[in-house]
Amino acid sequence: MDVSLPISPALSLLEGRVLGCLIEKAFTTPDLYPLTMNALVLACNQKSNRDPVLAVGEPEVGAALAGLREKRLVSLFAGADARVAKYRHTFEQVFPLDFSNEKTAWALIAELLLRGPQTGAGLRGNCVRMVPSLEGEGVDGVEALLGELAARAGGGLVQKLARQPGQKEARWAQRIADEAAGAGAGMGTGAERGKGESAPLTVALAMPPEVAQRLTALEAEVAGLRGELAELKKALGGG
Q1: Is pLDDT at 142 greater than 80 in this prediction?
Q2: For the chain, which terminal residue's Cβ has fewer other Cβ atoms within 10 angstroms, N or C?
């Protein structure tokens, strides 16, 4: 296995959450994807399929988006009919995977980013919402794909953790985001806090919150102007 990190420095906990949400929603709600800022905040704070459960706002998510865009993992969607700023992931451009089941690999990584280390069996069950065909696939196939991701040239995207006392099976973890980031503010896992209980997240922002908010507002304004320009062209018969 290639032990070098696939990205340096590693993503923060919140950057990993934002990236995981974008990959997940591209699968589960394609009609609403790319995501608006509001939809992305809701996805980050979602209580189902998340560990830890977070409570973050637009400034924190905006700063995380800025960091991800700097790392070329997220881009601003600028369609002609875009009325508000929307965001999409560009995971496949930064981490190209020469796999026949590439999209299943994306789903596995998204699930690890959203819910932390899991067994192969747990991942198979939890990823069915993104890749329904996994319902009929055995755990061995998932484990084999995870092994390919771990052995990826240029840095393994996942790693198999040593089995801990009391655990029947070894767990897999992603190697893209630092899951410890933010935990110093008294934020534990869902198991430690109790299911459904959210915790405010303290993160080291890539930029001051007011700057992130202003950037988001400017992006939304540009997207709105593009929409108005497209409508004006249409009205003038310019397509």
Answers
A1: yes
A2: C
Query: Whole-angstrom Cα distance, residue 178 to residue 181?
Result: 6
Q: Rounded to an integer, what distance in angstroms lies between the CA atom of residue 77 and that of residue 81?
A: 10
Looking at per-residue confidence, does 193 or 238 come out higher?
238
Domains parsed from the chain with CATH numbers = 13-160+168-187+195-235 (1.10.10.10)
Nearest to 124 by CA among 145, 100, 148: 145
Q: CB–CB of 17/44 below 8 Å?
A: yes
**Residue of 112, 87, 116 whose CA lies nearest to 22:** 87
Q: What token pair was written down for 24? A: 């997940």
Residue with tokens 């794909």: 145
Given this model, what pLDDT does residue 94 score? Answer: 94
Residue 89 phi, psi dihedral angles, 5° rounding: -85, 155
Q: Residue 179: which pLDDT band, with cuts at 50, 70 and 90?
A: confident
Would you say residue 25 has pLDDT above 70? yes
Element (H, E) at 172: strand 172-174
**Mean pLDDT computed over 156-182:** 89
The CB density around residue 55, as the number of other CB atoms within 10 Å, is 13
- Roughly how many angstroms between the first and final C-alpha of the chain, as a whole number? 53
Residue of 58, 59, 51 lying closest to 17 (CA atoms) = 51
